[in-house]
Amino acid sequence: MKRKERNYNLILGGCLAALMIAFMVVGLFYTPYDPDAMSGPSKFAGPSLQHLFGCDHFGRDIFSRVLTGSGTTFFVAVSTIVIGGGIGTLAGAFTGYFGGWLDEILMRINDAVASFPSILLALVFISILGPGKYNVILALGVIFIPSFARIVRSEFISNKEKDYVKSARLMGASHVRIMFVHILPNVVPTLLSAIAIGFNNAVLAEAGMSYLGIGVQPPDASLGRMLAESQTYLSRAPWCAVFPGLTVILLVLGFGLLSDGLQKGRGSVSCWR
Amino acid sequence: MNIKYIAKKTGTLIITLLIVSFLSFLAFQIIPGDAALSKLGTAATAEKAEALRQEMGLNQPVLVRYGRWLADFVRGDMGTSYSYSMPVREMIGSKLPITLAITMISFLMILILSVPLGLLAGKHEGKSLDRALTVVNQIVMSVPGFFLGILITYLFGLVLKWFVPGGYISYTESFSGFLIYLIPPCIAIALPKCAMGVKMLRGSVIQELQSDYVRTAISRGCRENTVLYRHVLRNALIPVLTFWAMTIADIVAGSIIIEQVFTIPGLGTMLITSISNRDYPVVQCIIVLIAGLVVIVNFIVDLLYRRIDPRITGQ
């Protein structure tokens, strides 16, 4: 028997993702300085022990701003996943389990939406709804529904013919019970990996839109907006750009590795059961 | 490839284009406040707005308006910008070559870089070269394009002074200068996509290397590289082709942001300005153009797919 290989992606990704989540949760409750407090003397101060990440053009502490900014990003990404993942899972479960004409129509719409880059669709939404944190969440949430629906649908289709579903049916379980008590737990590993990818896409889309100035609006701190502001002073204070950017990279890297690890681990989990 | 298949696919293409354009049209109809009010601005009174609505045909049913809009669009009349009172066609016409150039250069970069690297990583699966490539890949994939753009601006623009950040040169001024200025932004767009391409091709190559025909070819005495380039590459590229098609759409979307980073006055910059100004005719037109491009690229890839892999029956 082959020795179980260590899933480094899962371990590393899990650690990194947990670290970044902890970082963001801390940012919700505590920042070393007021993220909006301006100070003349510390304008463009470089990274030091007092200001770990340095200060920006208003003398605001970048570490504190990164903490709160990643909190905003986290909030947007999680809300997006809740909307997109929730509705997408429901839609995928029903269409995959029952099939029929509704399934056919929804899948055609899905194919059309899925072939477009999400940032472009988000721009359409924003140009209609107007910018702002909640509109970004709404836009991204709606855009993410198809990808979740498709993944869940295909899992439901392959599961519904299996013996355990048939035996549950014979024992008189209702369709809804079979869908959510019997099949759904088997879909969770795939779903988790999709959630990690979705989270990444949401983070990147939010940062991109805020960078363009049509995402999260001030006074909410946002990593994308910090990057946009930093560009004017790039030669004087590169740290204004480096640290927010690095935060986005670590976040995306962590969840990307996690998703890879979950996909790889999936095979072995079912083998060991 | 038979003509029937192409005809069928073309039919689907036209229907998809109609649906996409109708949805884009519809999306901009639900905006609160209509075109008449936006055009009148502060001078709007109820009577004036009503009169203008009659004149612009805004009181007619949606389908009629869509039909008229589509007929105008196909004939090249794409409406008039609210903010600049200029035909949208003229505004877009001068920007389109810029975005097309960015898309093509980035796509070429992705092809040139990702194919050899993907093959190399797949061939040496599990060895240190492959591991190093995978680690670099994973990191590059996590860098948002616009942050990569900022890093490139800082390192190559401000520190090494290889190019002047913000010193965009128009293609009417100097074509070579224009192309050279586009190289850094194209790298910023291409690198993350390239990493994804390498990852996909690597997986695909590894899978193909395990198939029977590879063993047969090796046992018959073919050299490893011959097998790799003649047999494996062709089969391994099939799944990657879909990825490349999606990449073109992603590049266009990515260029919207990257154009801001490098202050290039392309379609993306115009789209963002128009969104901020609520200049809906321009936004609608750009969205329809990009959406159309995506649909047409998918159509071409579908046809190519058949050509490369005759096993696909088009079902």
From TrEMBL, chain A:
Coiled-coil annotation reads: none
Domain ABC transmembrane type-1, by residue range, is 70-259
For this entry, list what GO says about its biological process.
transmembrane transport
The listed locations are: Cell membrane
Recorded hits in Pfam families, A to Z, give: BPD_transp_1 (PF00528)
Q: How does it sit in the membrane?
A: Multi-pass membrane protein
Sequence intervals crossing the membrane: 7-30, 74-100, 112-130, 136-157, 178-199, 236-258
Record InterPro entries: BP-dependent_transpt_permease (IPR050366), MetI-like (IPR000515), MetI-like_sf (IPR035906)
- Please give the CDD domains that the UniProt record associates with this protein: TM_PBP2
Entry superkingdom: Bacteria
Q: Which family does the record claim for this protein?
A: Belongs to the binding-protein-dependent transport system permease family.
Q: Which PANTHER family match?
A: D,D-DIPEPTIDE TRANSPORT SYSTEM PERMEASE PROTEIN DDPC-RELATED, OLIGOPEPTIDE TRANSPORT SYSTEM PERMEASE PROTEIN APPC
UniProt protein name: Peptide/nickel transport system permease protein
Where does this protein come from, organism-wise? Answer: Lactonifactor longoviformis DSM 17459
From TrEMBL, chain B:
Record-level Gene Ontology MF annotations: dipeptide transmembrane transporter activity
Q: Which keywords are on file for this protein?
A: Cell membrane, Membrane, Transmembrane, Transmembrane helix, Transport
Transmembrane region(s): 12-31, 96-120, 132-156, 168-191, 236-261, 281-305
Compartment annotation: Cell membrane
Under SUPFAM superfamilies, the record lists: MetI-like (SSF161098)
Domain of life of the native organism:
Bacteria
Q: How does it sit in the membrane?
A: Multi-pass membrane protein
* Similarity-based family: Belongs to the binding-protein-dependent transport system permease family.
Would you tell me the protein name for this molecule?
A: Peptide/nickel transport system permease protein
